[in-house]
Amino acid sequence: MERRNHSTVSEFLLLGLTESHELQIFFFLFFSIIYIAIVLGNLTIIFVVKLDPQLHSPMYFLLANLSFIDMSLASLAAPKMLVDLLSEHKSISYEGCMSQMFFGHLLGGSEMMLLVAMAIDRYVAICKPLLYKTIMSHSACIRLALLSWTTGFVHTMSQMIFTVTLPFCGPNVVDSFSCDLPRVIKLACTDTYVLELLVIADSGVLSLFCFIFLLISYSIILFNVQHRSSSGSSKALSTLSAHITVVVLFFGPCVFIYVWPFNSISIDKILSVFYTIFTPLLNPIIYTFRNKDMRNSIKKLRNKHVSSRSTF
């Protein structure tokens, strides 16, 4: 009730991706297929890791957590975007907008730290193989997962605790398909310069430093792999290439958006689509089709399911 006394905005209008009716129909069909693939692909990874005892290792435990975050991140924006593509009135309530931003930064911050945890796992596995089972124990994996979620929570709370107190008393049009923090806070009826700096310092610097840390970590790992035997290094290089591809494609748009968040160029919207829609699809594509163990586990579970049905 106290918020409503300081704000007259009850909803935000979303301009969406395009005003062309033909393009809206095309985008609806295209992104519907993408979203279904995201859900099915990431659910496949989660269930395969859960059901196959051979995948009960730290790397696949962290991978299953990454799939859950990616699927949740896509589900935060995609369903609303799909509905709006077929709607004349594209709007989201104040509460819905704040919730979307809160969970968006919660999941985004958690994924950054989870990618860092996956890099630590690969470093220990390749550079300290004799100590791998001791260092990367089950309890250590649980702590790394909890640390990633804690980082995401602190990250989103440090921004949203100030955002929800802003007075929104006039402009309510967001030039995007979802509520994006840098765009929304510019609509407040007060000077948001300090908050904009906080967003840059929090989101931009966190993204940039995590990205640099990951690049340094994987550079050290690759240096160590080069000094291994060719037979042992080929599998490590295959796994590392998947990790590095995900890191680059995840952090590239993220760093661009939040290090330079207050510009008006149209590429921001394209990068937002890539970050929230296409990036969650990369996880199942890269890890499923490029990981031999994952492919073998999927085939084994499928054959087991087929044989069990044939017995009836």
Architecture overview:
Helix 6 packs antiparallel against helix 8 and helix 8 runs antiparallel to helix 9. Strands 2-1-3 form a three-stranded mixed beta sheet. With 312 residues, the protein is an all-alpha fold. The N terminus is likely disordered. It has a single domain, classed as Rhopdopsin 7-helix transmembrane proteins.
Shape: globular
- Which spans of ≥5 residues are poorly predicted at pLDDT below 50? 1-6
CATH topology: Rhopdopsin 7-helix transmembrane proteins
Instruction: Calculate the terminal CA-CA distance, rounded to whole Å.
Output: 60 Å
The proportion of residues forming helix, as a percent range, comes to over 70%
Give the percentage of residues in beta strands: under 5%
Q: Architecture in CATH?
A: Up-down Bundle
Mind telling me the CATH class? Mainly Alpha
Tell how many strands the DSSP assignment holds. Answer: 3
Count of runs of 4 or more consecutive helical residues: 11
How would you name the CATH homologous superfamily?
Rhodopsin 7-helix transmembrane proteins
Integer-rounded radius of gyration: 21 Å
> Helix and strand succession?
HEHHEHHHEHHHHH
Mean of all residue-level pLDDT scores: 83
Structural class, from secondary structure content?
Answer: mainly alpha
Strand order of the largest sheet: 2-1-3
- Quaternary structure annotation: single chain
Main sheet, how many strands, which sense, barrel? 3 strands, mixed
